[in-house]
Amino acid sequence: MTEIVLNIDGREVKATAGMTVLQAAQKEGIHIPTLCHHEKLEAFGGCRLCMVEVESRGWTSYVVSCLYPVAKDIVVRTRSEKVDKIRKVLVEELMAHAPDAPELIKLAEEYGADRNRFEKEASFCILCGLCVRYCNEVKQKNAVSFFDNGSVREIKFVPEVAKEACWDCQECFTICPTSYAQAAYLLTEALAFPGQRKTAVQAAPPPELKPRVIPIMPVPMTA
Ligand code: SF4
Ligand code: FES
Questions:
Q1: Based on C-alpha coordinates, what's the Rg of the chain?
Q2: How far is C-alpha 87 from the geometric centre of its chain's CA atoms?
Q3: What pLDDT is recorded for position 178?
Q4: Which atom of ligand 1 is nearest to the CA of 129?
Q5: What's the pLDDT band for 141 if we cut at 50, 70, 90?
Q6: 7 CA from centroid of ligand 2 (Å)
Q7: Shortest CA distance to 187 belongs to which of 159, 165, 151?
Q8: CATH architecture classification, 3-79
Q9: How far apart are CA 126 and CA 93, in angstroms?
Q10: pLDDT score recorded for residue 197
Q11: How much distance in Å is there from the Cα of 134 to the middle of ligand 2?
């Protein structure tokens, strides 16, 4: 495997061809914030929070580190005035959708983001796609999907699939940065198959099924 040496935040980092800058940084314990990245999933490049500054052959550019491949002798800065400014605005935009998400609140503190900068359109989902991709790529169930595009894009559970696949899984609840996956599932259950999950659990409770204590966001009536 070809070894590639690059510089991240002043440190010499050894990576292998095919790795992304994010993977190379994580391998060295260098933190880059992410919202749509999960090590078990294909890179998505949706949230852009992992943006870093890259200097190569005298040129400086801003790249999404979860997609950008390592290259020989590039110089990466995970923090700079401009990088921090980009992340601040991204967090502000996301907070218009999920103002109370703990992960966003933490990021807002770190980057000095104003949670009220943009008009609220509280969908409670930041469309990071973690739930959709996890269900597809890891669980291979496709119980939750994206629907529509543009400003009306949203995630929804597919009732026919969710009814069978979700009640003993719910793994997407724990990776959702806003808790909306759980809220969307509970809404689907209440509307499409009320009480049926409970019946199934009571009939045959698997030993590993423990109630998850995850605070949920209020569910918008239009979801
Ligand atoms: S429900 Fe959660 S995990 Fe799924 S896309 Fe929305 S924010 Fe991401
Ligand atoms: S983590 Fe890279 S774009 Fe979201």
A1: 20
A2: 15
A3: 96
A4: 5
A5: very high
A6: 20
A7: 159
A8: Roll (3.10)
A9: 9
A10: 66
A11: 15
Name the DSSP letter for residue 136: I
**Residue whose token pair is 């959702």:** 176
- Whether this prediction's pTM lies above 0.70 is answered by yes
Predicted confidence (pLDDT) per residue in 161-210, tens digit: 999 999 899 999 999 999 999 999 999 999 999 987 654 444 444 434 33
Domain locations along the chain: 3-79, 80-122, 130-203
- Asked if 172 contacts 190 with a C-beta cutoff of 8 angstroms, the reply is no
Token duo for residue 21: 């800058």
Q: Is the CB of 52 under 6 A from ligand 1?
A: no
Kindly identify the ligand whose nearest atom is closest to the C-alpha of 103: 1
Residue whose tokens read 């503190």: 109
Q: Evaluate whether 143 touches 159 at the Cβ level (below 8 Å).
A: no
**pLDDT above 60: residue 223:** no
Helix axes 81-97, 102-111, angle to 10 degrees: 150
> Is 54 a pocket residue for ligand 1 (Cβ < 6 Å)?
no
**Each residue's pLDDT tens digit, 6-59:** 999 999 999 999 999 999 999 999 999 999 999 999 999 999 999 999 999 999
Contacts 24+ apart (CB under 8 A), 52-58: 52/21, 52/76, 52/77, 52/78, 52/83, 53/77, 53/78, 53/80, 53/82, 53/83, 54/21
